Amino acid sequence: MKGRQQGGFTLIELVAVVVVLAVLALVVYSRQISLRQDAQVAVLNELRGQLQQVMVQVDTLKQVPSRVRTDSNGNQYLSYDNNKEYRLEKGYLSRVEICHILGLTDTAMSSNGKQDSTDGRFSCKDENRDFAWIRMTGLDSSVCYLRYKTFNNYTQRPQPVLEGECSS
């Protein structure tokens, strides 16, 4: 009687291969999520830089009297770009205008309002008199967001900062 020939893999070998493939898939998947979050944080960081540049331009343009208009309620508006007007609060860009002036939305947010960007990638919210924020809709809100701090209702120059877990 001849010895029995092996016609395939044993169950233990198959289980070992499946386990190795599962571990590899998990590593690749977690790395992909990390890269995606890093890319989204980079986009928010770019928006922060754009907002800082806009704030410098607003500071310069508000010195030109023909660029600032005051309505009958005492609200000030700055003629900034393409004849669009943006609201000022105590001489600074209003927190309700941050997504509007960056071109993410077509209009300013309402006070204490929330508004999604025209492309649906961002969510903007006027949280309270001290700050507004921009978050990416695909990014967990607890991870990272861009906050426009207005420091006790504009008693200091507002600051755009990334907050949350923004570093990898």
UniProtKB/TrEMBL annotation:
Which Gene3D superfamilies does the record cross-reference, listed alphabetically? Glycoprotein, Type 4 Pilin
- Lineage, top-rank taxon, reads Bacteria
PROSITE patterns reported for this sequence: PROKAR_NTER_METHYL
Membrane as a keyword? yes
The record, for Pfam families, names: N_methyl
Entry keyword annotation includes Transmembrane: yes
Bilayer-crossing regions: 7-29
Tell me the InterPro entries matching this sequence. Answer: N_methyl_site, Pilin-like
Which key words are in the record? Membrane, Transmembrane, Transmembrane helix
Task: Please report the name of this protein according to its UniProt entry.
Answer: Prepilin-type N-terminal cleavage/methylation domain-containing protein
Tell me the classification of the organism that encodes this protein: Bacteria, Pseudomonadati, Pseudomonadota, Gammaproteobacteria, Alteromonadales
